[in-house]
Amino acid sequence: AKQCIANQSSHAHLNAFVSLADKAVVLARVAAAESTRGRHDDDLVGQLIAVKDNICTSDLPTTASSGILKSFVSPYDATVVKQLRDAGAVISGKTNMDEFGMGSHSAHSHFGPVKGLSRSEGHASAGGSSGGSAIAVASGQCIAALGTDTGGSVRLPAAYTGIVGFKPSYGLLSRWGVIAYANSLDTIGILANDARQTRVLFNKLNAYDPHDPTSLPPSTRQRLRTSKLGRRLRIGIPVDYNITSLDPTVKRAWIRSLRDLEAQGHSLHNVSLPATRHALSAYYVLAPAEASSNLAKYDGVRYGSRAEGPDGTPDSVLFSKTRGQGFGPEVQRRILLGAFSLSAQAMDNYFIQAQKVRRLVQRDFDSVFAAPNPLLSVEDVEKESETENGVDVLVCPTAPTSAPLLEKVQNQDPIDAYMNDVFTVPASLAGLPAISVPVDGDGEKVGMQVIGQYGDDRMVLDTAQLLG
Ligand code: GLN
């Protein structure tokens, strides 16, 4: 813990944290936790863990890196925070991020951008939106961190900073106390130095929470399979991910990882996921639509900061001034996009179409995995089980390139920024477990992604351990 605290000072310029817990308080909590050692399982006792600033904590502000929430302090801890504290972990601070989770480089923050790994030409992008969490882990300011992953926000920063980032199956980890971006996609994710540590946190957090209406109930949890490590895995190679914009270094790393797995006795199989081509467009219709609805509550009356104005200002003026000042440009863009795609004139052509694509993406995955989707009804499973030639997991890159320079992406066209999510968004649309693992890519680290069938989280973690 002392080393982590020292690293916080020496790496303060990376801007990984929005707020840090008081050092004396942290050390006292570590000492108190240490004194309970031996009472339960000690994996996390006295360990410093950082938490993304869209996850509520009662002792530190929760801003989602937005101007509109800059002085918000939650009256309670999110369930995941409580679970970590109960396990003896100490929350060291709240990490910087793209405002409300909207972005891929942690550059859209009210508190300034997170700086990624240092290169001779300048700082790289830390990835986003959980870039603060990723850099906090990568620079040794904590042993692990929580993030959120809606369309890749844990996996992409992990890939860009050379660490592990895991997005579990949708509904396994509680979202109670997590500020919503797009509820049907939002997932708590874990960032750590290796797959083993990631698994330790996952095991602590993977529990039903009655406070979260989307938390998977115990009866369904019982239907999930247990891992099958120790047998030959059938590894799927999604050929549709071999796109022209794939960087040669990333492609070579992909091939090397596959050969590596083959050398360990696992078999490789080409699979096709044709709807993947449309997944990114569908995501950028659905996520903003849900966001525009979720963010409507920040109006200066019920939540957050309020624009200055004399009493008696008409509500509409108060709302628009508050929202105009409180939300950054990317959030405003998403709200407009979402409000448009949900409007009567655009609904059929955008929102409904995107929902259909989402269903096709889910079907694609179900058709390539050997295991049936445990969320489908029994009749559906019978119809769909053509499992003979199915695969256990898919392995593909996390992003088309390694981390770009921060300076470059700050002036990037929004559409180009959205392109970074092309490989992470499909698993989000289908709610599947997916992890990014750092592998060697011509001397630098490249993120390799493992995707599994719904509920096969342990198998995904097992495969990550084989790669890492
Ligand atoms: N980059 C994606 C977005 O901006 C993903 C963000 C996320 O997963 N929170 O929507």
Automatic annotation (TrEMBL):
Active-site residues (renumbered): K52 (charge relay system), S129 (charge relay system), S153 (acyl-ester intermediate)
Database matches in Pfam families: Amidase
GO biological process terms held by the UniProt record: glutaminyl-tRNAGln biosynthesis via transamidation; mitochondrial translation
InterPro entries: Amidase, Amidase_dom, AS_sf, GatA
Subcellular location: Mitochondrion
GO terms of molecular function: ATP binding; glutaminyl-tRNA synthase (glutamine-hydrolyzing) activity
Keyword RNA-binding: no
Catalytic activity: L-glutamyl-tRNA(Gln) + L-glutamine + ATP + H2O = L-glutaminyl-tRNA(Gln) + L-glutamate + ADP + phosphate + H(+)
Alphabetically ordered keywords of this record: ATP-binding, Ligase, Mitochondrion, Nucleotide-binding, Protein biosynthesis
An example Gene Ontology CC term for this record: mitochondrion
Protein role: Allows the formation of correctly charged Gln-tRNA(Gln) through the transamidation of misacylated Glu-tRNA(Gln) in the mitochondria. The reaction takes place in the presence of glutamine and ATP through an activated gamma-phospho-Glu-tRNA(Gln).
Family of this protein: Belongs to the amidase family. GatA subfamily.
Quaternary structure note: Subunit of the heterotrimeric GatCAB amidotransferase (AdT) complex, composed of A, B and C subunits.
Protein name: Glutamyl-tRNA(Gln) amidotransferase subunit A, mitochondrial
